[in-house]
Amino acid sequence: MSSVFDVIPYEDLTHPFRTIGTGSFGSVYRSEYLGLPVALKQIQPSKDYDVQKYFEREWRLMKEARHPNVVLYLGLSRSPEKVTYIVSEFVEGGNMRSYIHHKRKPFPWTMRVSFAIDVARALAYLHARKCIHRDLKPENLLLTANGRVKITDFGFARIAPRNDDEQKRITFCGTDAYMSPEILLGESFGLSTDIFSLGVIFCEVISRTLADDSRGDFRRNPATWGLDAQEVRQKANDGCPEDFVQLSLDCLQLEPNDRPDCREILERLSRIEVEILQREKDSDTHVGSVKFVAGKRPNMAPRIPSFG
């Protein structure tokens, strides 16, 4: 613990903790810290990974990250039994996986592209600092009360290898349905491995279909570990802009160097957002024979702000 602001006294946390999920290496609980809702992550022993190494890497990366679309790190706390917890903000809206899965929840195209932009913004921030997340998936994308997305769970995250020696020591990890072909084939990988995972998430967003669903949607080709472009197009929901489908497929390119980087993805998403908003505006201004002068239906809810 490097500074007084890293230390959160265990007695200042409200007990008992309530279990809300599991992360890469441990359980996640809800508590309160001096009246503020917080999430606590506790490491669990593992035979497969050096959990202490990953845990320390996770809290150090979270501590350095400062972005509206990255979960905010608050500090570390240690129980009398010497159990260490990462303390972060509590994001109350659940995760993107649950939202996609519950088909009764509204999921208009404005919200879908908003989700995509938020994730791309967070990933652009991480990649600008040469940080690979390595476990990008809807379960690690949390939703705020006003519909913003925040990346969490940095258990597998690390700084991209800077040379061949570091590349040899890098481990292969992640979640199968979102892993890039280069990871599944045991080849070297870099920042673009996250772009492939982002492409799988985009496919889920445009189709409202989960890639790791028990139904076997978005199955991988065992020869290349790529996704079937025709299946992606067929599953895209009505009203999906063609450019959104194409962006998803471009992120899924088998060759890492052929995938767009985060800057290009954000530029393309911005154009897609303009197209969707214009389409909705045109729809709003002409409803049957009625035309609203202001270009909006009466009492229309304001558009979700970019940050918060």
TrEMBL record:
A Pfam entry, by short name? PK_Tyr_Ser-Thr
Highest taxon of source: Eukaryota
The molecular function terms of the Gene Ontology recorded here are: ATP binding; protein serine/threonine kinase activity
Protein keywords: ATP-binding, Kinase, Nucleotide-binding, Serine/threonine-protein kinase, Transferase
UniProt keyword Kinase, yes or no: yes
Q: Where does ATP bind?
A: 41
Please list the residue ranges annotated as the Protein kinase domain: 14-272
Keyword presence, Transcription: no
Listed InterPro entries: Actin_reg-Ser/Thr_kinase (IPR050940), Kinase-like_dom_sf (IPR011009), Prot_kinase_dom (IPR000719), Protein_kinase_ATP_BS (IPR017441), Ser-Thr/Tyr_kinase_cat_dom (IPR001245), Ser/Thr_kinase_AS (IPR008271)
Q: Please name the SUPFAM superfamilies in this protein's record.
A: Protein kinase-like (PK-like)
Under the heading PANTHER family, the entry gives:
CENTER DIVIDER, ISOFORM A, LIM DOMAIN KINASE 1
Of which family is this protein a member? Belongs to the protein kinase superfamily. TKL Ser/Thr protein kinase family.
Q: Could you tell me what this protein is called?
A: Kinase-like protein
